[in-house]
Design brief:
Blueprint: E1 3-4, E2 33-36, E3 43-44, E4 46-49, E5 56-60, E6 69-74, E7 77-80, E8 91-94, E9 101-105, E10 114-119, E11 122-125, E12 136-139, E13 146-150, E14 159-164, E15 167-170, E16 181-184, E17 191-195, E18 204-209, E19 212-215, E20 226-229, E21 236-240, E22 249-254, H1 287-292, E23 298-299, E24 316-317
Antiparallel strand pairs: 1-3, 2-4, 2-22, 5-6, 6-7, 7-8, 9-10, 10-11, 11-12, 13-14, 14-15, 15-16, 17-18, 18-19, 19-20, 21-22, 23-24
The protein binds calcium ion (4 copies).
One calcium ion binds at residues 151-153, 155, 157, 159, 172.
Length: 321
Amino acid sequence: MTALLAGAVAAVPLFAATGAAAKGDEIGGSGAEYYLNDAWTGSANWAFKYGRTDDRVYVGDWNGDGKDTLAVRRGNVYHFTNSQAGGPAANVVAYGRANDTVLMGDWDGDGKDTPAVRRGNVYHIKNSLTGGNADRVVVYGRAGDDVVVGDWDGDGKDTLGVRRGSTYYLKNSLTGGPADHVLVYGRATDQVFVGDWNRDGIDTPAVRRGSTYYISNTFAGGQANRVLVYGRANDTTLVGDWNGDGTDTLGVRRAPKPPAPAPAPATRPVTVPAPAPASPGVYYKNCAAVRAAGKAPLFRGQPGYRSGLDRDGDGIACEWT
Ligand SMILES: [Ca+2]
Ligand SMILES: [Ca+2]
Ligand SMILES: [Ca+2]
Ligand SMILES: [Ca+2]
């Protein structure tokens, strides 16, 4: 399937969000439509619907086949699917608490992404898609830090980095202590994603401004290696290796357009008068009989009133005119 995703550069506002997102973070946003691209073009080659509009979603390689797929989180229950186009969950796992912040990464280098629960600056890392106790607990950075997950040194293991404004403190091991790299990149207001864009095994940043992505193969700053317009300004970005070629590429999650408000009714509803009750007692066959009986005109609701005698429908039968 192919869907055109090109957006106009000039028309889109800059994003104010400062949250750094990587493969690893909850992707955020809403919507059940996904458009994933294996190439650096404006057209998605995977387009599908998955889950519910308000689902919390993660991207990762849950089965170690080299391909990234989606997981849906509902409370503290995670539904992992291994199929590119969504589909039934292969694993359903309860982990941590419903209000935990969770990151996904390949913490042990076995090729499979698994969860880490973050509580403040404490990370409870799990190396399997199972519940139960964490395999290791790491303290890193400060409770309020933005965190990025990636493989900064190409050893096959994901580790943590913290972002403070435009400064990144990257650590190559799941331990506390000083960062292995301190780098300044982009602007403090940039929306930043992390991926291995050039297949060298090392994760580096991409900055998103509106629907334009500035993709860099190093944290060293300077010119972006690639500039790409993808999706729409209000899409949510996904990063992953959808086809298992070793290169991370882009995808978007898209919310449906809000339904148009129902049109106002063209006219006020017509009030239909209630039918007259059957007239017990006096019954006049016609208006002549009414007149002959010396009766006054009959009003709707009176004994003897019949709509058939009320030719002008004004609720008065047998008016003398
Ligand atoms: Ca996979
Ligand atoms: Ca792993
Ligand atoms: Ca690493
Ligand atoms: Ca790379």
